[in-house]
């Protein structure tokens, strides 16, 4: 439908107030209300961040009842580690095709909330601890889905970073931190991909429910970012229907059997809800009918399973490898761990997918090994019973083989939507198994399956290789077999930091909060931003990931292209004997810019490139204004401080392969001075400071300018000095100086 046709149609449709109000609340769990007399159809929505969860009529919103079979693609925890927008877009497109075939108009995904703490029970649905990576991949997902005509719903807006008390907790976070960490991924998705809907979160933001937060939903999302789609509530997130509509929610889901419609009508009649606001929301809901109308073709389950396998391969991260991987097909191996036979491949809760098929590593490995593969369960996933007999059987089998491949991780009962974890440790039975097997095995490989970060301490140094499989979707077993046997060269990079201890994470003392509030006391210093700034040791940093080949930087050049932007030129050569994909990671260190606190590393550009063995690749990446800017709370705008910035080509967030220092002109801002401004701010002001002493003859003021005095009294408001000096200041002098600062220039 063209925009012109839409506008013409809009003028020909006249809805009554009751019809408009009816559109603002769902018909049932998964569909919107139709207004057949006006030609407005019902729109069907479905969970689907990594696979459709389409339920028959009467389905439930909590995931307890079964859903129809669908491809389970790698969840976001894995897709984030691909660092590959192309792979994510391909998954999104496949999801869109499945939605179209199933009669679904809008998919509820992607989730781009930041991984503030490794304990969040829903981290498996989120992409990264970094807003740029989350935003780029989230936009790719939306573009992929919507290329099929199906709509996407980016969620959960905003600061939805825990499951504890998730329906009520207030995320207390300052605006600069919101603007720089928790909102940019949403902003990028909205501006670059134009999603059909944005889903508001359950939680409060600074004391105001997400569904009633007009600043967030109207001022920021619509007026500042230009979002023109519909805002849909998370399922059950609306507490006051009229307040939600006033704030900017267009569609309350699920339906409330008419209760919300009655309350909205009463609010309109009482003059508490402007009918013009209702009309605007109803029009946005009506426009959702343009999604899902594309051509419907049958889905090939085998083809989509192959896409799931390709994506899983691109997501897998090789953490450690001491001359053991890839395995030779002739190697005598024992596979240990129930997860190798019964894979853990997705998270629990509302996104749980009824997979069309499931590949186990144990079966897939038999396609690559020339000899028989022995298997030992090693542990009971449920943790029931005495673990010693299973462990002893595994140790006996490992002693007789060349390589032991141990699958360990977290069960669905350990992490899910609805609750947070209390630890990052693996179950004790599994860590005991790793230690026991590594003692007798010539070579030991550990494969991890989990949705949230798990700690590696207590056994890391005892094993020869570690493969992080996260949750890889229904084809994860085949993908892992291809990587472990070298058919595929691993190229995934960590999208979140693996700490030494939970206590080393920046949010540790502020998670999950208490008495209805969680304070984001770490502010900007989330994940690698914290450890890069403080120097806290980590096991593996954000961006880490090994390959079976070796990449070498041949050229790194940074060119200043404006007062607030640069271009980075990189040449990388594959000097190994295997084809492989490499991720270029560009970080900026603005911590020397003293006006505001800045992290020592911030990811500002990245690109994943495939390089055949013996070949090289030349890339150019642009770092725009936002790569160097911070959110200035006084000016309510993005600002670039003039001066030096380090531009770093990182192997990961903590390891530099090359770097250059550039000088940017930045923004020349004349800040307004008032009598509430400090003495130090007056003397430091670029306009007022140099003329302050010439204008004011007071000896006291001259004394204030001395370093020792400024150090003691510089934090006093100028009003205090004026009160003390009195007639020592010429009449009107202070006012004249303040007037020089009223207008600012960028």
**What level of helicity do the residues show?**
25-40%
As residue ranges, the low-confidence spans are 1-12
**Numbering strands along the chain, what is their spatial order in the largest sheet?**
9-14-13-12-10-11
Q: So how many helices? A: 24
User: Gyration radius, to the nearest Å?
Assistant: 28 Å
Could you give a short account of the major beta sheet?
6 strands, mixed
The strand count comes to 26
How far from one another are the termini?
42 Å
Overall geometry: globular
Structural category is: alpha/beta
How much of the polypeptide forms β-strand, as a percent range?
15-25%
Mean pLDDT over the full residue set: 93
Summarize the structure.
This protein has 746 residues and is an alpha/beta fold.
Explain this structure:
With 746 residues, the chain is α/β, with parallel strands linked by helices. It is built from 24 helices and 26 strands. The strands form 7 sheets. It has a 6-stranded mixed β-sheet with strand order 9-14-13-12-10-11. A 5-stranded parallel β-sheet has the order 1-2-3-5-8. A 4-stranded mixed β-sheet has the order 7-6-4-16, with no helix packed on it. The radius of gyration is 28 Å and the shape is globular.
Write out key terms for the chains shown.
746 residues, alpha/beta, five-stranded parallel beta sheet, 24 helices, 19% strand, globular, disordered N terminus
């Amino acid at each position: 439908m063209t925009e012109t046709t839409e506008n013409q149609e809009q003028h020909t449709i006249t809805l009554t107030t009751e019809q408009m109000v009816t559109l603002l609340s769902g018909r049932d769990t998964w569909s919107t209300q139709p207004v057949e007399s006006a030609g407005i159809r019902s729109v069907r929505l479905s969970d689907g961040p990594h696979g459709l969860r389409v339920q028959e009529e009467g389905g439930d919103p909590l995931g307890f009842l079964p859903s129809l079979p669908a491809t389970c693609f790698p969840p976001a925890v894995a897709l984030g580690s691909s660092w590959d927008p192309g792979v994510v877009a391909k998954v999104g497109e496949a999801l869109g095709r499945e939605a179209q075939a199933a009669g679904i108009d809008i998919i509820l995904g992607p989730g781009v909330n930041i991984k503030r703490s490794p304990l969040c029970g829903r981290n498996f649905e989120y992409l990264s601890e970094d807003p740029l990576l989350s935003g780029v991949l989230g936009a790719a997902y939306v573009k992929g889905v919507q290329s099929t005509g199906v709509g996407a719903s980016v969620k959960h807006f905003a600061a939805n970073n825990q499951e504890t008390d998730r329906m009520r907790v207030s995320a207390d976070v300052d605006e600069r931190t919101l603007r720089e960490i928790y909102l940019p991924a949403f902003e990028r998705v909205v501006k670059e991909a134009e999603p059909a809907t944005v889903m508001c979160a359950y939680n409060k933001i600074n004391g105001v429910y997400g569904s009633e937060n007009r600043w967030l939903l109207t001022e920021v999302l619509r007026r500042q970012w230009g979002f023109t789609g519909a805002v849909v509530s998370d399922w059950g997130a609306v507490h006051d229907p009229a307040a939600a509509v006033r704030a900017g929610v267009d569609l309350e889901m699920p339906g409330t059997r008419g209760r919300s419609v009655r309350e909205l009508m009463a609010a309109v009649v009482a003059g508490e809800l402007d009918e013009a606001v209702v009309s605007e929301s109803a029009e946005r809901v009506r426009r959702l009918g343009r999604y899902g109308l594309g051509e419907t073709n049958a889905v090939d389950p085998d083809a989509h399973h192959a896409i799931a396998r390709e994506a899983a391969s691109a997501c897998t991260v090789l953490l450690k490898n001491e001359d053991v991987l890839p395995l030779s097909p002739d190697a005598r191996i024992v596979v240990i761990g129930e997860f190798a036979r019964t894979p853990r491949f997705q998270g629990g809760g509302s996104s749980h997918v009824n997979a069309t098929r499931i590949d186990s590593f144990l079966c897939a490995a038999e396609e690559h090994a020339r000899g028989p593969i022995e298997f030992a369960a090693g542990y009971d996933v449920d943790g029931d019973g005495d673990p010693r007999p299973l462990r002893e059987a595994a140790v006996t089998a490992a002693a007789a083989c060349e390589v032991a491949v141990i699958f360990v991780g977290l069960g669905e009962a350990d992490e899910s939507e609805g609750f947070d974890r209390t630890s990052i440790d693996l179950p004790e039975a599994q860590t005991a198994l790793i230690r026991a097997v590594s003692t007798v095995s010539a070579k030991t490989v550990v494969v991890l399956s989990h949705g949230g970060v798990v700690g590696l301490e207590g056994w890391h140094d005892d094993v020869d290789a570690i493969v992080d499989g996260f949750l890889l979707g229904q084809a994860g077993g085949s993908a892992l077999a291809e990587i472990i046997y070298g058919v595929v060269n691993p190229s995934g990079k960590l999208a979140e930091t693996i700490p030494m201890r939970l206590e080393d994470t920046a949010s540790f003392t502020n998670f999950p909060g208490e008495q209805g509030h969680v304070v984001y006391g770490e502010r900007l210093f989330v994940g690698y931003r914290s450890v890069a700034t403080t120097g806290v040791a980590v096991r593996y940093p954000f961006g880490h990931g090994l390959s079976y080949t070796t990449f070498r930087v041949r050229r790194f050049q940074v060119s200043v292209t404006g007062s607030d932007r640069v271009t980075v030129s990189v040449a990388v050569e594959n000097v190994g004997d295997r084809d492989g994909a490499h991720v270029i990671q560009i970080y900026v260190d603005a911590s020397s810019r003293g006006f505001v606190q800045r992290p020592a590393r911030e990811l500002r550009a990245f690109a994943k490139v495939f390089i055949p063995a013996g070949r090289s690749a030349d890339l150019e990446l642009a770092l725009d204004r936002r790569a160097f800017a911070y959110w200035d709370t006084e000016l309510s705008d993005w600002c670039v401080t003039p001066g030096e910035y380090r531009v770093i080509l990182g192997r990961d967030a903590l390891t530099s392969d090359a770097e250059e220092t550039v000088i940017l002109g930045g923004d020349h801002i004349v800040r307004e001075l008032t009598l509430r401004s400090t003495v130090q701010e007056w003397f430091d002001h670029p306009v007022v400071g140099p003329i302050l002493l010439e204008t004011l003859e007071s000896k006291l003021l001259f004394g204030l300018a001395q370093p020792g005095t400024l150090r003691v009294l510089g934090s006093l408001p100028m009003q205090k000095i004026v009160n003390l000096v009195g007639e020592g200041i010429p009449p009107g002098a202070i006012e004249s100086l303040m007037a020089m600062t009223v207008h600012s220039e960028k």
